[in-house]
Amino acid sequence: MKILRQCLAMAVAATALCACATRPAFEDAPPTRSVAPYQAARDGETHMDKSVMWGGMVLEVNNFEHHSEIEILAYPLDEKQRPKLESADQGRFIALMAGFADPATLPRGRFVTLIGTVTGDRHGPVRGEDYVWPEVDVKRLHLWPQDFRESKSRVSVGFGFGFGG
C-alpha cells in the first residue's frame, strides 16, 4: 500500500511539472523556418507574400485612422516561440495591424511573437543611416508576460528512502 501511495504521489508531481511548463504562443501553428527580417529586407521581392513567424521587442507603436504600425526589433525564436534575447538581433520590422493597437498594452520594451505575411518594405533613416524595414500584415499576435524569461518551472521533485527499525 505504501508503494502504491508513493507511485501515485510521483504521478501527481509529474503531472504538476507538465502543467507548469511554458507553452508555445501558437500551438496550432505549423513548424516554420521563417526567413529572418534582415533577409526579407535585403531580398524583398523573393519573400513577398510569404508567411512568417517573427518575434522581438516593441520599439514604437503608431496608430492611424484604420490601422496601427508596430516597429519591432527582431530576435530569433526558441522552441517555445519566445524571443531569444541572448542571441544577436535580426533587424527591425514593421508589424501592420488592422484597427487600434493600444500603446499602453504594447509599450516600448515588451516582447511579442506574431504570425503574418510579408507585404512589402519601407525605406528610411535609423541613426542617420539608410534602413529597410520589411512590413508584415499581422494575422495573430502574442504579447509575452513581462517575466517570460523567468517563466521556467520552479518546481522540483526529490526522492528519498529511509531505513530504520
Overall description:
The chain has helices at 2-20, 37-42, 44-47; strands at residues 51-63, 67-75, 92-98, 111-126, 129-143. 18% of the residues lie in helices and 36% in strands. The two termini are 19 Å apart. The protein has 165 residues and is an alpha+beta fold. It is globular. A hairpin with a 3-residue loop joins strand 1 (51-63) and strand 2 (67-75). The chain has a single domain, classed as Beta Barrel (OB fold (Dihydrolipoamide Acetyltransferase, E2P)). Strands 1-2-3-5-4 form a 5-stranded mixed β-barrel. It has 3 helices and 5 strands. The longest helix has 19 residues, at 2-20.
Write the layout of secondary structure elements.
Blueprint: H1 2-20, H2 37-42, H3 44-47, E1 51-63, E2 67-75, E3 92-98, E4 111-126, E5 129-143
Parallel strand pairs: 3-5
Antiparallel strand pairs: 1-2, 1-4, 2-3, 4-5
Descriptive labels:
165 residues; alpha+beta; OB fold (Dihydrolipoamide Acetyltransferase, E2P); five-stranded mixed β-barrel; globular
Entry summary:
With 165 residues, the protein is of the alpha+beta class.
The CATH topology is what? OB fold (Dihydrolipoamide Acetyltransferase, E2P)
Number of domains: 1
Q: What is the approximate shape? A: globular
Q: Portion of residues in helices?
A: 10-25%
Given as residue ranges, the uncertain stretches (5+ residues, pLDDT < 50) are 7-20
